[in-house]
Design a protein that fits this description.
This protein is mostly beta strands. Helices cover 9% and strands 33% of the residues. A six-stranded antiparallel sheet has the order 1-6-2-3-4-5.
Length: 103
């Protein structure tokens, strides 16, 4: 359903927020679609932890809305829409493999 609402344009360019010399630390908004990362740190926002965004958890970027809209991230089997400014503050440890498909 998220694909229908937000579209699924593949990202082909590097993230503008990540310096090229930093290979192991990324932010959630810099992930490619269906790419997975492990959370290193989150901003001090009360609603992120109850949604499952905690250090050490694996998160997958499922959808990116057009025109600077929200991102849809999957964590612990749940899909959550986050604003890009919040996603930019969620630091990931390293890039992992592609996300497993939930069928």
């Amino acid at each position: 359903m998220f694909k229908m609402w937000f579209g699924r344009k593949q990202d082909t360019q590097e993230c503008p927020h990540r310096p090229p010399e930093c290979q192991n630390l990324r932010t959630l908004d810099c992930l490619q679609l269906d790419e997975e990362g492990e959370i290193d740190s989150i901003p001090d926002q009360a609603l992120l932890e109850p949604l499952g965004f905690r250090p050490g958890k694996k998160v997958c970027l499922r959808c990116r809305a057009r025109f600077g809209g929200p991102l849809v991230a999957e964590i612990e089997g749940r899909h959550t829409a986050l604003g890009r400014s919040v996603a930019r503050q969620i630091k990931l440890r390293k890039q992992l493999d592609l996300c497993p498909e939930n069928e």
